[in-house]
Amino acid sequence: MDDEKNEVNEEPTTDNSEDVDADEFDDEETSRDLVVPGETLTEDTKTYLPGRGTIFNKDRTKIISLNIGLKQVKRNYINVIPLRGFYTPRPGDKVIALVTDKNPVKYICDINAKDRGILKPKNTVARGKPRGYRGGAPDRHDRQDNSTEKYKIGDILIVKVLSADRLNKPELTTVGKYLGKRRDGLVITIDTPKIPRVIGRSGSMIKMLKDLTKSNIFVTQNGRIWLKGENLAHERLLIDAIRKIEKEAHTVGLTDRMSEYIENEKKIRGMN
């Protein structure tokens, strides 16, 4: 019970644009032309190198695409920004996780990636040296560290990725600001590569969504979005808007178009 009372329950902020890569779809060097796997992106291999989603051909005379996506040139690298894809965990990422199983030594969490994430009890309790004790606290937290009673199967958690590599399952933590169990709101999932578009350049899209739908939003790198509106009508409008952004992520002028869409929908739905 003490764990539940001490758990941080601050509302996630909407200004989490720094937690996610820069808006690749808004980059001025990203073309609006779709490319497909195997398509030649350039034959100028003296000037350019393959970046994300691209490789040299066998003779190293061309750079070709590995994905369906948008061609992007950054400095001397050629990338392909995928229109669809899975989440690849990286240390420091904040993601929304679903507790799918647990045993006496760990929680198993779905983080919308190839591998399940691992949350150990020791990474659910903040550590420190309380005042009045030399050499640290008594064994209260040590006992809690060994228990998996804090969270239940089915709980929705906002976590941070501690470590992730090809050999081990991602290790997670719920210790930190805005991390921990969510007791309210809704969670939806979109294609991971579309997440930067929901945020927008310098957070422009997410700020507009928050203001026009009177909602709190927390966007995470694994394609999941936590949201809580003033009422059900505003939450439904926000979800419809996010789905539209996901569908039209590759188009230009999306922020202005979404603002107009939301204002029109509010009139149609009789919302203030």
State the end-to-end distance. Answer: 41 Å
CATH class of the domain at 186-268: Alpha Beta
Largest sheet: 5 strands, mixed, barrel
For the secondary structure, the number of strands is 16
CATH fold-level assignment of the domain at 186-268: Ribosomal Protein S8, Chain: A, domain 1
The amount of beta strand, in percent, is 25-35%
Helical segment tally?
A: 6
Strand order of the largest sheet: 8-9-10-12-11
Class inferred from helices and paired strands: alpha+beta
The mean pLDDT is 83
Provide the gyration radius in Å.
22 Å
Detailed description of the structure:
- This protein has 272 residues and is an alpha+beta fold.
- Among the domains are: 24-82, RNA polymerase II/Efflux pump adaptor protein, barrel-sandwich hybrid domain (OB fold (Dihydrolipoamide Acetyltransferase, E2P), Beta Barrel); 186-268, Ribosomal Protein S8, Chain: A, domain 1 (2-Layer Sandwich).
- Helices cover 21% and strands 28% of the residues.
- The chain has a 5-stranded mixed β-barrel. A 4-stranded mixed β-sheet has the order 1-6-7-3, with no helix packed on it.
- Strand 15 and strand 16 form a beta hairpin.
- Helix 4 runs parallel beside helix 6 and helix 5 (232-247) packs antiparallel against helix 6 (254-268).
- The longest helix is centred in the last third of the chain and has 16 residues, at 232-247.
